[in-house]
Amino acid sequence: MVDVKNFGATGDGLLAETAVIQNALDTGKIVHFPTGVYRTGTLYLRSGGGIHLDPDAVILGSTDPADYNANDFDPRNTFSVKERASGAHLIIAADCEDITISGAGIISGNRNGIFKTDLVHTPFGNRPRYVLPRWRPGAMLYFAGCRKIRLEGIILHDPAYWTTLFHDCEDLDIDRITVQTDRLTNNSDGLDIDCCRKVRIINCTIISGDDAIAIRGNQRPLKKDAVCSDITVDNCILSSAACGVRIGVGNGTIRNCRLSNVKIVNTSIGIGICPSYSPGSCTEISQAVFENFSISANQCFLIVPNWGVDINDPAIKKVSDLTFRNIEAVGNQASLIVFPHKAGMFQNIRFLDSTFTLLPDGTAPRRIHWTAPEFGIINQLDGPAENILTNCRGISADHKPLLLKKSR
Questions:
Q1: Residue 2 in contact with residue 34, Cβ under 8 Å?
Q2: CA–CA distance, 212 with 262 (Å, rounded to integer)
Q3: Which residues, 6+ apart, have CB-to-CB distance to 399 below 8 Å?
Q4: Side-chain half-sphere of 171: how many Cα atoms within 13 Å?
Q5: How far apart are alpha carbons 211 and 200 in whole angstroms?
Q6: What's the mean pLDDT in 37-48?
Q7: In whole angstroms, what is the distance from residue 156 CA to residue 94 CA?
Q8: Beta-carbon neighbour count of residue 265 at 10 Å?
Q9: CB of 71 within 8 A of CB of 88?
């Protein structure tokens, strides 16, 4: 381990110290950050190295676009004109292995210095958001093509966009980290796990303005087949202005996910599963188990073929073998499971030993493509309802049925 101050860093938080911090990281060793505020632009991690933060140490993102990487630094890197998110990142690891980020300090995207937080609008009905700045970084932490990555104990704070993106990585351990985003920040996902294998997320607390944990299969930027598989989530607390857990996005395959002992609170959608986010791009989703969940959300489940777009999109792929076991779910709106007209798209969806409570003022699901005039606690449309619910019960002040099968 080397001390960043031995390379000339002051930790006074006044000016960007990117160059001297990078010199320390280039040793390929773990770089120790003692108490202080280390303002910086893009930092590149090296194989065998990483970062260790003391409890009062802060890595603070610069607000100057000139301090960050170019959008085209890596052919896998992406950016979004629509969301005004550049391809700039605070911390980057590309094609590295054996990297650790640990300690009890903070990595901050300095969103407050990039957004004008006095400007708020409501583009999503009653879901207010800050007005987007002209420029903002992309994912605060960007890992692509890496192996043997460990994040432990740290606080990831105040990103201006996604908190993390792990793309085409393998052997990823995330243990006891805290994600703290401002719920008014657009697109402020917690952990984005994209086309990764052998991922373990345990003992984490994630508060996000967008999806807390997103499991994705977006292999198009990789220009190769890359399955997202063997994802474990255990003993986590999630809170989100969007989905607590979201599975979908991309054109690849997501399979073999196991999520257990998860508490989802103060969230718009508890669990959202949607293989198609945009027309012509769809993931195949299979073999996911959710067990021992406590969910308190506006809508506890939303399992749909696409996010409000053409239900007959020919690119739609199947969703199969989803098991929900021992779920305690309390929602303001009825949950929705949509079986589309395309035969065999949804297969073997099971809820076991679970309780669903629709609060007294509970209303219909969100106004998306599949609204209906009558609603139960769980709504399943356009498909066979047999054996979806086993040993489950519904609680509703106005005695709504647990499952309502209704054709569109």
A1: no
A2: 12
A3: none
A4: 9
A5: 18
A6: 98
A7: 20
A8: 16
A9: yes
Beta bridge partners of 219: none
Q: Is the pTM of this model over 0.85?
A: yes
Provide the sign of the torsion angle of the four alpha carbons 337, 338, 343, 344, taken in this order: negative
Q: How far apart are CA 183 and CA 163, in angstroms?
A: 12
To the nearest 10°, report the CA torsion of 126, 129, 131, 137: -150
SS3 of 106-141: the string is EEECCHHHHCCCCCEEEEECCEEEECCCCCCCCCCE
Identity of the residue numbered 311: I
Model pLDDT for residues 62-106, shown as the tens digit of each residue = 999 999 999 999 999 999 998 899 999 999 999 999 999 999 999
CA distance 395 to 401: 9
Cβ atoms of 290 and 259 within 8 Å: the answer is yes
What percent of the chain is modeled with pLDDT above 70?
Answer: 88
Element (H, E) at 39: strand 36-40
Q: DSSP string covering 235-278, please?
A: EEEEEESSEEEEEEEESSEEEEEEEEEEEEEEEEEEEEEESEEE
Distant-in-sequence, close-in-space partners of 49: CB < 8 Å, separation ≥ 6: 25, 27, 28, 29, 30, 31, 99
Average pLDDT, the chain: 90
Contact residues for 53 (Cβ-Cβ < 8 A; gap 6+): 33, 59, 101, 102, 103, 104, 105, 106, 107, 154
DSSP string, 356-373: EEEEEEEEPPPSSTT--S
For residue range 189-221, what is the model confidence (pLDDT) as tens digits? 999 999 999 999 999 999 999 999 999 999 999
Query: What's CA 53's distance to the chain center, in Å?
Result: 24
Instruction: Report how far residue 352's alpha carbon sits from residue 360's, in angstroms, rounded to the nearest whole number.
Output: 24
C-beta of residue 316 within 8 angstroms of C-beta of residue 286: no
Count, in order, helices (H) and strands (E) of the chain: 2, 35
